[in-house]
Amino acid sequence: MREIINEINLMIIASNPNIIRFFGITKLKDELSLVLEYADGGTLKKYLSDNATTLIKWETQLKFANETAAAISWLHHNKIIHGDLHPKNILIHQHTIKLADFGCSRLQGLDYYSEGFTKPRGIIPYMDPKILDNNKSYDLTEKSDIYSLGMVFWELTSCLSPFDFENNLKKNNDTIKIVLGILDGKRENPIPNTNSKFVTLYKKCWRHEPDERPDIQQVISEFNSIDPIIPIDSENNNISENINSIDESDATEKSENEDSDLPDSPGCEDCDINIKCK
User: Fold this and answer.
1) Gene3D superfamilies in the record, alphabetically (predicted)?
2) Is residue 268 assigned to a domain?
């Protein structure tokens, strides 16, 4: 109930074309449901999965990245931290990004743990490593959203789950190896022929130390220097070996059903609630 009330309070004040609109709340039997703006394209996760064999056009990658950043920019300008950014919480309506699910969101300055969140919450590859490390001296910040944004940007170019995380869950593989790799500084490999400026941008976003990550206005500013038409430039011919990847040999296997959020993972909780859209 705490998460539902929190989500309602934040969605009431959210007003941006790239944030899903909140219309009200309804009760069916004993279940409360939020009434939200309809998104005809489903989740970004499903969209990427559906396009995994061909990848999506560069113009679409950059458009979706820009719109997701615009939604985060509005939140941060209004002192709101999303706290659970990943492609299942990003919807698409008429080819436009709509950020959703504010169950883990909160106003900047409120203590993460005093607000009732006793464990790290979210999906492991998108979580700020400082939170993932169970370090209660570190609080969820705007830079936590920036880290998640970097992972989303990479996924836009690859149409893959970072570190093949979802397939590892389906196979009941131990995800601790992934967690330890992230904490050790390992990140996914850039996809060959991705625009080098875009790669540089998302690598800045997923830096381990929050103070070394750009803020959202710096992210948006860097978008202005990226060519929206030409995906490849002279600086980027073969970049796939620049950073380490975890179990990259398994990264070709795609998951089939990615509409709903993942179940709890070791050491983490996923705080997303059951939302019905009418």
Assistant:
1) Transferase(Phosphotransferase) domain 1
2) no
